[in-house]
Design goal:
Blueprint: H1 2-21, E1 26-34, E2 37-45, H2 46-53, H3 65-70, H4 72-80, E3 83-87, E4 90-91, E5 94-104, E6 107-117, E7 124-129, E8 140-147, E9 150-156, E10 162-166, H5 172-189, H6 191-201, E11 206-209, E12 212-215, H7 219-245, H8 253-272, H9 280-302, H10 309-338, H11 342-368
């Protein structure tokens, strides 16, 4: 029992430190390959570039177009020095082209367009990616390669800075696998989604007696409660994820992200001051509809391949579900032995209070465009 308590406490501490740090830093790199030439587009968050090279020259917490334009050469030099492209072991020199500005789900990005000239037709591609590697170990680069209408995705990270591709083996199977992995990665780094689900799972091994939480006497009932919550969340976000990714419905990202933060507050506060214990699945469904729009933002930012639209969407959604189920698989075996002790109730109340407090900060930042964390 002591070992289980230690594991649960350690997981909470590690997870809390990661959550409190900041939203994971992402960039979006697209390479369209035509014979021996590569047309590239690299979307990089202005907040990350400002931290790395300083874009806000007058320190007024606003990056103007004039400030950004004055730094175009510095941005291109900084970014392209951290990307190496090779074709069949021969370097492909990279040349900067135009720079634009675009908005992603988490803010403004510079759009760096470039070309790379390789000596011969590209069959094997090797990429070395080191953007922000010395500043942010959590940074990820989301890569999309387009060849003859076929698309392939991959993720650069601090532990995987070099990726190689055999362009002759690109197929829907490799695309399916890549989008599945992207879905798993997205749920495990989507801290607001995880904290919402975690807040709903915490009472699953308890029953409400009056206004007091007590340990459940039925493992079967607790498992069924977990199943209802996860299923409701899955069905709801699958609906809106599909509708948003297919451009059927659009909601403002500020509204979506603010409502996601509010959902975390509601779920956590329900553990502290219980309003409902039997219909948490309904809470999971209602707010899951909004979380689906949040999941779709990553797909819109990366882009769905037109030739494998349905399979890529299904793969991403299945990856999200696999990430969720891995959380459930860890939670129930740890929580069940501890449910009747004071330790678990302290973890639930204290953890829920910490989650609600963090979500209030998130809501303030997203709804009122504040900078707190």
């Amino acid at each position: 029992m002591d070992r289980v308590q230690l594991i649960l406490t350690t997981m909470l501490l590690v997870f809390s430190s990661a959550v409190a740090a900041h939203k994971p830093s992402d960039s979006y790199l697209t390479l369209a390959i035509d014979n021996n030439r590569i047309n590239g587009q690299w979307d990089i968050a202005l907040r990350d570039l400002d931290y790395a090279i300083g874009l806000d020259t007058n320190q007024d917490n606003q990056i103007t177009w004039g400030e950004l334009r004055a730094q175009h050469a510095a941005i291109a030099s900084y970014a392209l020095a951290r990307l190496a492209i090779r074709s069949d072991d021969h370097p492909c020199p990279v040349t900067s082209q135009t720079q634009l500005v675009d908005s992603h789900s988490d803010g403004a990005y510079t759009v760096l367009k470039f070309t790379a000239a390789c000596g011969a037709s590209i069959k094997h591609l090797a990429l070395d990616y080191h953007l922000f590697s010395d500043l942010d170990p959590q940074h990820k680069g989301l890569l999309q390669i387009i060849v003859n209408g076929n698309s392939r995705t991959a993720i650069f990270s601090n532990t995987a800075p070099r990726l190689t591709f055999d362009l002759g083996q690109m197929s829907w199977r490799t695309s399916f696998k890549q989008y599945f992995e992207l879905g798993v990665w997205h749920i495990w780094t989507g801290y607001d989604h995880l904290l919402f689900l975690f807040s709903l799972l915490l009472p699953a091994v308890l029953t409400l007696s009056g206004s007091t939480w007590r340990g459940s006497n039925s493992l079967r009932a607790s498992a069924f409660d977990v199943l209802r919550v996860v299923t409701a969340f899955t069905v709801a976000h699958s609906i809106t994820l599909s509708l948003a990714a297919l451009d059927v419905i659009h909601l403002p990202s500020r509204l979506v992200e603010s409502t996601i933060a509010a959902s975390v507050i509601c779920a956590a506060c329900n553990n502290i001051y219980p309003i409902t214990s039997q219909r948490r699945w309904l809470l999971a469904f209602c707010f899951g509809l909004i979380h689906g729009f949040g999941f779709a933002a990553t797909l819109r930012d990366l882009g769905l391949p037109s030739t494998a639209l349905l399979s890529s969407l299904v793969a991403f959604n299945l990856g999200v579900e696999a990430g969720q189920l891995s959380l459930v698989a860890m939670f129930l075996p740890l929580a069940w032995p501890l449910r009747s002790g004071a330790f678990y109730r302290r973890v639930m109340i204290g953890g829920s209070l910490a989650i609600a407090s963090l979500a209030v900060v998130w809501f303030s930042e997203r709804a009122f465009l504040l900078k707190i964390l």
